[in-house]
Amino acid sequence: MEQKNFFSSLYDKVYQYVTDTEMWIDFGLIVLKIVAILILSRILVSIVQAAVNQVFRHRKGAKLQLEQRRVDTMRVLVNNVVQYTIYFLALLMVLQQMGIDLRPVLVSAGVLGLAVGFGAQSLVRDVITGFFIIFEDQFAVGDFVTINNMTGTVQEIGLRITRIRSWTGEVFIFPNGTINQVTNFSLANTLAVIDISVAYEEDLKQVEGILQDVLKKAKEELTDIVAEPQILGVQALGPSEVVMRITAECKPNTHHGVSRNMRAMIRTEFTRLGIQIPYQKIVAMPVKGQEYAGGRGQ
User: Fold this and answer.
1) Which residues form the Mechanosensitive ion channel transmembrane helices 2/3 domain (predicted)?
2) Contact 134, 76 (CB under 8 A)
3) Cβ atoms of 152 and 186 closer than 8 Å
4) What CATH number should be reported for the domain holding residue 51?
5) Given 145, 164, 184, which residue is the final one in a domain?
6) What helix, strand, coil percent values describe the chain, rounded to 5?
């Protein structure tokens, strides 16, 4: 009998709960609000991402020109930050509609964020520095740079690390937060400086005329030269030679190859025309005994 009364009482409570009109109205309103929050958040994400894409759209002829890869990287990064931020706020609003007190959640999130911030502050610094490296276009993949006294070609730029490879094959990996000084050799034209030594006996006017012809030929054959090479004149007077200096403006980071090619062209032309380039000579002196023995043999 008691069991029957228990089930009857339970049935009445369930029936009363299920048939409670105000409860279903409140529940429906909560569901509608949650659906509206989700839909509005999705619409807001789409609008903001469209605006971000418009801002980062490549414009021909604009004063600020960034590499397209960098633009795409920044666009994706900003879109992700916007998306996560809006969805996080939408989640908090949904939890509030479900009757969950957000104060303990926010306090816990604040404490957790503070702990993560202290534990991963170097990671945060690396990411922030990496973002500004990309945004400010400090260097790009393929640039020849010196970072923290290490020189090489940039292989990879990430939000956390930068990787460069030296000409001898070593790969250097830098956390972006540790990059304190950068020298980029690939942004502007470079200057090839060539010093040519000739003997004191040579006529400098004749030498300058020969060099002028060589420089004209070099300008025509070497595509990395962007301006007319110049003869600056006598750079130094050595013990056995006169040093003349030549300069040539080249494309970024091509001055080493241009210098080598121009030296080879000048050496070939000097040899053809008989211009002497001084070099050390060692003359073997005969020993007295050997000279006397040779004399007796004759």
Assistant:
1) 81-121
2) no
3) no
4) 1.10.287.1260
5) 184
6) 55, 15, 25
Distance CA 267, CA 210 (A): 11
SS3 233: strand
Q: Please indicate, yes or no, if residue 294 is contained in any of the structural domains.
A: no
Instruction: Residue 193: name the closest of 244, 149, 139, 137 by CA.
Output: 244
Same domain, 249 and 222: yes
Supply the range of the domain harboring residue 179.
Answer: 137-184
Is 230 a member of any domain?
A: yes
pLDDT band at 52, cuts 50/70/90? Answer: confident
Q: Residue 287, SS3?
A: coil
pTM over 0.70: no
Length of the chain: 298
Beta carbons of 26 and 79 less than 8 angstroms apart: no
> Apex CA 207: angle with CA 206 and CA 210, to 5°?
90
pLDDT band at residue 73 under the 50/70/90 scheme: low
Q: Are residues 114 and 146 in the same domain?
A: no
Same domain, 74 and 159: no
Q: What distance in Å separates the CA atoms of residue 111 and residue 117, rounded to the nearest whole number?
A: 10
Q: Structurally, how many domains does the chain consist of?
A: 3
Residues 69 and 142 sit within 8 Å (Cβ to Cβ): no
**What is the tens place of the pLDDT at every residue in 136-176?**
778 877 888 999 888 998 888 877 888 899 988 899 999 98
For residues 75 and 187, what is the distance between their CA atoms, to the nearest angstrom? 24
